[in-house]
Structures are given as structure tokens and as C-alpha cells.
């Protein structure tokens, strides 16, 4: 993986989250993905389970509730890529309502491992809420 490949994947990740399109979500990950919403969670294992968790279905440790359309945006960028491992940082911004004021902002750091086709096979995220937002 190159930084440009990871940047494209991150853009696709944000678009998948904004649309909640199951096919877009699934296209990001390998069949055997291990996905951690927090580094201390048990992983959500398998593509179908990750899609389910993103859609707010099932009982997956660490999964958040599904966001209302238009109340979320994000900007992430890779900061380091070493072979199939990438680290990215960025912000997730939540709005009170579509077009409304900002409710909260999170600073994010993600560590990902990719397969040869550019699909993520391991994902872990660390995030914290900005105290001033």
C-alpha cells in the first residue's frame, strides 16, 4: 500500500459511513476482517458482522448507534504506511441536525492492515472528544 491508496480507502470509508450502503461498507473489508471500535474491545469478526454493526444491527461490543443522515462528517489522512500496515489520523464531526451547529468533534487515530487487493483485514481505532467542541 502507498499513502495515496490509503487516502482513497479512507475517503471510501467516510462515504460508506455517510451513506450506510451495505455494499460500500462491505467493499472496504476482507471476508475475515477483525474490526475493533476501541483497542480494548473484542473484535467484530467477519465482513458480514462489520456491516451489521455499522448499520446498528446486532449486539457488537463498542459499536455506536447509527447516525442520522447529514449529522456526520469526517476527514482522515494517512500519516504512516509500512507495507500492508497504515496509520491514519483525522477528525469526526457530529452536528445537532443536518445543516445545524456542531455538537461534538472527535480526534481519531486508526491502525489498519490491508490485503493485496487494498481491502482492510485488521482495523483498530482510538478516539477522544475535543473538550472545546
Report on this model:
This protein is α+β, with helices and mostly antiparallel strands. It has a single domain, classed as Nuclear Transport Factor 2, Chain: A, CATH 3.10.450.50. Helix content is 23%, strand content 41%. It has three helices and six strands, in the order ααββαββββ. It is globular, with a radius of gyration of 14 Å.
CATH topology: Nuclear Transport Factor 2, Chain: A
CATH class: Alpha Beta
How many helices does DSSP assign? 3
Shape: globular
Order of helices and strands: HHEEHEEEE
What's the mean pLDDT score?
94
The amount of beta strand, in percent, is 35-45%
User: Which stretches are low in confidence, meaning pLDDT under 50 for 5 or more residues running?
Assistant: none
In the CATH hierarchy, the architecture is: Roll
Main β-sheet description: 6 strands, mixed
Overall number of strands: 6
* Count of all domains: 1
Structural class: alpha+beta
Computed over alpha carbons, the radius of gyration is 14 Å
What is the end-to-end distance? Answer: 34 Å
Strands side by side in the biggest sheet: 2-1-6-5-4-3
The proportion of residues forming helix, as a percent range, comes to 10-25%
Record the SSE blueprint.
Layout: H1 3-19, H2 22-27, E1 29-36, E2 44-45, H3 47-54, E3 72-82, E4 85-95, E5 102-114, E6 120-129
